[in-house]
Each structure stands twice: as C-alpha cells, then as structure tokens.
Amino acid sequence: MRTDKRKVALVGTGMVGMSYAYSMLNQGVCDELVLIDINRKRAEGEAMDLNHGLAFSGSHMKIYAGEYKDCTDADIVVICAGVAQKPGETRLDLLKRNASVFRSIVQPITESGFNGLFLVATNPVDIMTRITYEISGFNPKRVIGSGTTLDTARLRYLLGESLRVDPRNVHAYVIGEHGDSEFVPWSQAMIATKPILSLCGTGGEEDMVSRQELKRIEEEVRTAAYKIIEAKQATYYGIGMSLTRITRAIFGDENSVFTVSAMLKGEYGQTDVYAGVPCIVNQNGIQRVLPLTLTEEEANRFNSSCQTLKESFEGIL
Ligand SMILES: NC(=O)C1=CN([C@@H]2O[C@H](COP(=O)(O)OP(=O)(O)OC[C@H]3O[C@@H](n4cnc5c(N)ncnc54)[C@H](O)[C@@H]3O)[C@@H](O)[C@H]2O)C=CC1
Ligand SMILES: CC(=O)C(=O)O
C-alpha cells in the first residue's frame, strides 16, 4: 500500500457515511476522500460542507464528489450505502433491499480497476460483506465487514462504567452476527489479565461485579441500536468512529485486533461464512483470525449465530 497518497472512496453519503467522513477529516486519516452516492447532489453538498471545515482541521485532505471510476486508485472503498432500520425492524429485514443496492455498486467498483480493500458497514453487515466478496471475486482477506466492532466498543464502554475501569484496559469481545444472535464469550473476557468471571466470586458483597450485571450489560449491548433508533431514528457516530479506527489501523499497518466480520475458513469449526471474530488487521486487510478458546456453551452459541447467517445468505444472489 502506498503511503504517499492515502485514498479512500466512500460509497453512501448518508448519516453513517458522513459520520465516518467527518471523523476521518478530524483525525486526518487519509489524504484524498472521494464521496460517491446515487444522489449525486447530496454527495456534492457534503463535499462542500466538509471542505469548509478544512481550515480548522489541521489536515490537507482533498475531498470531492465523484464517480465509481474514481475508485480505480483508491486504497480502501468503504460502503455505507443502502437502507437503514426503521423502528421495529431487525438488521436482517434489510437484506433483500440492500442486496439489490450492492448489485449496482460492487461491480462498477471492480470494473474501475480498484485493487485495494473493501470495508463494509451496510446492514446486515456480515451478509453484505459476503455479497461484496462474492461479486468482487477478491481475496476474502481484502473484504472486511465492520462486524461486531461497534458492539465490542459498546461492551467495553459499559463494562468500564460498571467496573470503574478504563475501557482501554477491558479486553472483552462481542462475536458472531452483528445482530440479534451476537453474544459475549465471557470465559474470554479480561480486565488487564484478570478474567472478569473471577471477579464475580460467590455472589457476596465483596464481588466486583455480579453475573446478573454481566447479563444486563450483554443485553444492553444487543439492544443498543434498537434503543437509539427508537430515540433518534438512526445510529451513526459510533459506527463512523469504528470505521475510522479500522481505516487508521489499515493505513498504519498496525496489526491491531478488531472484531471485524471475516470469512471463516475452518476457524471456530466454520467455513464459508462471514462473522464477527477478533482479527489482526493491517495494510493487507485481515492478517489472521484469532481463534478464541470457547466453552462448549459458547461454541454452540457461535455455531447457531453462524447458522443464522448462512441461512439468510442462501438464495440471495
Ligand atoms: N455496521 C454497523 O455497525 C452499522 C451499520 N449501519 C447501516 O449503515 C447503512 C446506512 O445507514 P444510514 O447512513 O443511516 O442511511 P442513510 O439513509 O442516511 O444513507 C444511505 C445512503 O445510501 C445512499 N444510497 C442508497 N442506494 C444507493 C445506491 N444504489 N448507490 C449509491 N448510494 C446509494 C443514499 O442515497 C443515502 O445517501 C444502513 O444499512 C444501516 O443499517 C448503521 C449503523 C451501524
Ligand atoms: C444500526 C446498527 O447496526 C447499530 O447501531 O449497531
């Protein structure tokens, strides 16, 4: 990957796409950002608006509205285009509509000669990432979904609040579908190197946290998007910052760990499914999937989540 001109093409300049763009601008993560949307006028307006903030950002980004041919020399194409959930809808309810949107997006991107990494956020994100992989024919290591990165951030925030520990010292993950079947493998959750389950103790007052509290937190993570959508129609800042963080890890060749959506090829006993699992991410995309040692119950939950994803994908292309 070049380091002289870090170029991102963003497809979908709605709430999620523009939260990402705004956060990219403020953090100066790339040198060139092209905005693409079926609504060209919207992309043009967004480019103008962002450019008017450049003077205050301390970065020298080139930002403009473009076309799919502008993906040709992009390092990363980030896809946030499509419909979002309305109150009462699940992420899986969006599948048919967004599969049709992706048919019109992924092919022109690959036809442009694009040869970088795809980063997908559109829901249901695990299946949309699989669709991107299937249509593009790219190596799956270069087709990444945001997966449960946002859910993991929500979990670390809530655990940090509850345990009064800096979330950066909370090492706990949400895995599986970015959706209703996701879960927390608590056997693998740590504060520094201390297993969180060992802080639950016997249920006495000296316990740092109760199992009931961990259950409450897990449920709050699983239902967070529903609550936000009920309150303000959409979620976007959290995912915008998650995508920015992943982009930074790619450009910085960081080898950082995120629960992105990755194609499993035998890991966790699963094949041919994209699901959120801890992965090492660098400039080549997914360097490797980290196989956690799950308990039998956790492995069953993971398999069941993957089954949901496989069944939903069947027949969609
Ligand atoms: N992965 C995650 O953790 C999260 C994912 N999302 C998902 O992100 C997606 C976008 O959500 P929002 O930005 O809130 O929606 P939005 O409605 O604000 O924006 C969608 C944009 O996509 C564009 N678009 C639609 N069809 C297109 C096409 N064929 N070609 C190019 N552009 C097209 C629209 O013109 C619009 O600008 C949704 O699927 C939503 O569920 C939202 C939050 C978190
Ligand atoms: C909407 C969505 O997927 C989220 O906020 O988690």
Description:
With 317 residues, the chain is of the alpha/beta class. The chain is 38% helix and 17% strand. The chain is built from 9 helices and 14 strands. The protein has helices spanning 15-27, 40-51, 95-103, 106-111, 125-136, 149-163, 211-232, 237-251, 296-313, and strands at 7-11, 32-36, 62-65, 76-79, 117-120, 143-145, 170-171, 190-191, 194-195, 256-258, 261-265, 271-276, 279-282, 285-289. The strands form 4 sheets. It has a 6-stranded parallel β-sheet with strand order 3-2-1-4-5-6, with helices on both faces. The radius of gyration is 19 Å and the shape is globular. The two termini are 31 Å apart. The model has no long low-confidence stretch (mean pLDDT 96). Bound molecules: 1,4-dihydronicotinamide adenine dinucleotide and pyruvic acid. Residues 85, 91, 123, 150, 225, 235, 239 line the site of pyruvic acid.
Supply the key terms:
317 residues, six-stranded parallel β-sheet, three-stranded antiparallel β-sheet, 9 helices, 17% strand, binds 1,4-dihydronicotinamide adenine dinucleotide
Write the topology of this structure.
Elements: E1 7-11, H1 15-27, E2 32-36, H2 40-51, E3 62-65, E4 76-79, H3 95-103, H4 106-111, E5 117-120, H5 125-136, E6 143-145, H6 149-163, E7 170-171, E8 190-191, E9 194-195, H7 211-232, H8 237-251, E10 256-258, E11 261-265, E12 271-276, E13 279-282, E14 285-289, H9 296-313
Parallel strand pairs: 1-2, 1-4, 2-3, 4-5, 5-6
Antiparallel strand pairs: 7-8, 8-9, 10-13, 11-12, 13-14
Bound molecules: 1,4-dihydronicotinamide adenine dinucleotide and pyruvic acid (PYR).
